[in-house]
Amino acid sequence: MTENGMQELHRDMRIVRLGQGVDETGEFAPEALDRTFAAVHEYAKEITRHGAYPTRFIATSASRDVSNRDAFVTGIRQRLHVTPEVVSGEVEAELTFSGAVSALDTSRWDRPVKVAVIDLGGGSTEIVLGTLDPTNGTATMNAQTSMNVGCVRFHERHKLADPPTQTQIRTAQDDLAQHLAALDPQVFDFTDLDAVVGVAGTITTITAAALGLEAYDSEAIHGTELDIARIVEAANAIIAETTQQRAAHGFMHKGRIDVIGAGAIIWAQLLQHIQQATHGRVTTAITSEKDILDGIALSLLR
Question: What CATH number is associated with residue 237?
Fold first, then answer.
């Protein structure tokens, strides 16, 4: 922490697909645990190298649902010497919200603004509604939910082909529509929203596609505001591609190639739902590279 705020020393993202098969089997697959433990072993080295203490390990969606959670917890504790916190969807949403809005440019507003932060993960999607005061940067969370809707979970649940068929796409869309319809309309009232912020790899990757980037560029992606129509167009293009075509994109992480189609279905539909709910008031979405990881770091500084 410096006088100018939190200073990032190191950031590394690994796609370990911990939630592989969880929706179907209700437990972590042995190979998924192996991939996760290998990544944590490397992270432990970085933590030691930077002297980054205290350490907080947060486990989210898939970890809440499995029968063999103890094997996961023990494996993390052995390698990192901290006990992973399997947090509720509400805590996950709160951490995501604080991280996502921490780097928003609020200079465009001269009044408190109502923001929806959406974190589209592998096993779940968090929707958080809050108010951001641009005069002092205070962010207040008003409502949050965690839906069992994510790119890995949807890809496996709906057994999406390569590429998905129109029938599979419609079935997935109907699934998401049911989750959205189950939200309390009085709590999740989108009508007076001012802005939508999307975080996590699916959303940043679709943003890279919409921007026409040849390679993944965090600086170009972070803070980008695009028309929803443009984002939906990029999402639909990804959905229609084969895995071979997706792999050819320089911005596409190899760990997302097979599941990004499911994520694109979710992101496009969520944005269209919000645009319709606001009666056209919200026509754009902002992409943030700051997410739950930043929220966790901020929580250790409080």
Answer: 3.30.420.150
